# Entry
Amino acid sequence: MPDRTRTGTGTRRPVERGLGWLRLPLIGAFGFLYLPIAVLVVMSFNASSIPFVWTGFSLQWYPTLASNPQVLQGLLNTLVVAVAATVGATILGTLLAVGLARYTRSVLLEAYSLAPAIIPDLVLAIGLLILFTSIGLTLSLFSVVLAHIVFGMAFVAAVVTARIGQTDPSLEEASRDLGATGPTTFLRITVPSLAPAIIAGALLVFTLSLDEFVIAFFTDGPRTPTLPIVIYSMVRFGVTPEINALGALLLLVSFTVVLAAQRITRLTDAL
Amino acid sequence: MTLAHRPGGHSAARRRALLGRATLTWPGLAYITAFMAVPVLLVLGFSFLTRGRFGGVVAPFTLDNFARAVEPVYLRIYAVSLLIAAATTALALLIGYPTAYAISRLPARWRTVALICIVLPFWTSFLIRTYAWILLLNSEGPVNRTLLEIGLIGAPLRLLYTPGAVIVGLLYAYLPLVVLPVYAALDRLDPLLREAAMNLGASRARTFWDITLPLTIPGALIGAIFVFVPSLGNFVVPELLGGGKTVMIGNLIRDQFLEARDWPFGAVLALMMIAVLLGAFAGQAAIARRINGTARA
# Structure
């Protein structure tokens, strides 16, 4: 809580009663952000085969979706990528965050470790495409995993770094002074104290990878499209109620995963 | 401290620190180097190569790709891209700043909830969120129906496949990225400054214009960069909501790699995006330094 640090010094936010006209942008922003999502979810229960004209309630599009082989194959491909990228990014990102915070303390290296999350995805995507073709790596789900790890680890590093500031380094010192080796200290002291941030970071990478389109679009092979690539070709072909249902399900998954991550650690500190 | 009593303990600790640094940071830094820095350098290298006859690239080194990038047909695309990205950024600041300001004045408990609600859509599928606007803006979609029903319009408006739809789509995608840094800047602001201004008799509006706004400009600029740069490089929104009629730099880059197969020219365009990003960050840093300098003086 931002206020907690300030109560000690005797100062606090000036008390302001009511938001007054500031309610307007607040309501406007939330309406703008959530209205389209609400429309999409409502329309996924639409009986009509025209995806934007409401005619009545129906659940028919969800079973239709489940029998679409392209969607199912895309989902499977995406899950493979997301799980592999989450494991890789979580390990590398955690090690990097701890190393930077405990040993290096270099602002420059910290910026470098966050750069993959800031660089425009299109630039990263074509750079990786050039790299993979230059070294003769056949584009496949494996190349997507390699690509997703690089920006995923930046997010894990950011979330873990925010948490390290709140942990006590003297525990690690004590462990070492008592004769524990570096790896033992890391696994028995550092990782458990950072566990909430590590898990939250992993959840974020999972949902980011699940939904990531641009980089996958450039680094994936033609025969193993991930789910966002399948959705993209479906949308380009035309809007269908099936996409509404698929979209509603994906939104539900992302919301659940991110809210779970937020419950574990304060994500807003890391952003 | 235990170590200090042991002969050679100091150098042992240092060795261990070095080893720790090596095992912890090296894998990650090496990975970022291999899969971000090297790719960016390859983009730079490719920008000097010549397109091969059957796709791919060949030597010799040339500056032709850069010369091509300033041809009028492309200058027009940059102008359209800059206009759309600038309009998106301006709207994002106009909506995002007051939103962040309102959130910063909520009770602490609600502040976190509101922030989460702002970022939540950002973590969901960008494609699906863009797709939702196709439903909304369709000539038979909810927006047109509502306008028709309340009698504001007599016939459905053409909303989809216009530059306006592209701006709305980009704004929808990146609005959270303005709210967060502005909120962070407001949160860091020392409340004593505002209290002092108020105690010295400044009105609430005066306090805002003289204290709060100037000191949060660096944060707002970070937000502006986070909206402006990805807007330039976005090819999905212009395609899905602009109907392919609005061509932006992102579309141009994608086409060079997937359709025209002119990778060197695409590399030049990508370099321009990196230049815009770096230039924007440098400008933000310079302005932030100046503002912080004045605040301290």
In short: The first helix of chain A runs from residue 4 to 7. Confidence is low (pLDDT under 50) at residues 1-15 of chain A.
